Amino acid sequence: MKKNKKMAVSFLAAAMAVSLMGCGGTQQAAETTKALETTAAGEAATETGGAGATELTTSGQNYILATQGVDTTVYSRVAAIVEVLGKGDLGNNTIEIQPISTGGAAGALLIEENQSSFASGSNVPGKRLAEGTYEEGRAPLQNVAAVCGGTDITWGTIMFTDAFVQKTGFTTLEEVFEAKHPVRIVTKAPGSFGMDGANDLLDCFGITWEDIDSWGGASYHIAPSQMTDMLKEGSADVSIDIVSLGQPAFTELCMTSTMHVIELKEETRAKMNEKGYNSMTMPANSWNGQTEPVETICGCETILVRKDVPDDVVYALTKGICEKKNEIVELVPAMESFDPATAWTIEMTGIELHPGAAAYYKDAGLMK
User: Fold this and answer.
1) On the CB side of 239, how many CA atoms lie within 13 Å of its CA?
2) Which neighbouring-strand residues pair with 56?
């Protein structure tokens, strides 16, 4: 009964925030989510014995975890983690979820700027931010470390509308760019991993968004729901994204419109590998209408933390995520791919581990 109550509070937060956002109340949604997540964490700590449930030196602290909007799979995943770890794993310390990140590099930057203590992130932009190679003039991160990587696989997902395929005969992105076709492309907003991936793809071909404009094409960098609306309406031809399978807006798009999920050629994948992405085969039927496997690239999702968060809190968080994976998967099946045996590797995190996380992986025999 207590478990069900806590789950209800956690996911009520998401539901209410979605409703409020739909009415234009983004700020109100964030505040409602914060309040309900705090209530859930507080009730969980009380019901499991408060500070006595887990003996930590750090006590009574409330930490902000920045993540993407409540209508994303990323939000669902971190909400599930907070829900499961609210059962005393962090003692009487609590975590509030705030949907204030656009994804990609944004989570790490929110931590760097001290707007949150934890954040969801992505390994490829995280790696570049840590190295100082993300964008010209930006210094390397000083305050950000990793808890774990691989909480989900994010796939390079390129879709063509059926009308575009029927009109042009193009079946690969390479053909479109080689022909300098006046294509209309939608991506996520700047700062997102989807936009980063699109920029990286264009760089592999030696072209820019301005080049596409000069061909008579256009590009729009917007929210996922706006992307899918434009594709449905026929005002866009192609979407480029780095996205979790089952992302709501694109799942709905593929259920209601004929879309073609496009493969990247081996040469393109090799160039993306040099930028930190991995080559992987997207399974058949990952999206409605996609009946064949698709060769593409991927990144992975991470949990990041400020370096000044105490070691004992980060140790407890890392331990909880790794050892309660099955409970988290019950709430969010996308976490099935998470592997504690590799979650600590730089390939998965993109950023060096927090000392508290490293201590857990060593104690658990996962890290040498």
Assistant:
1) 32
2) none
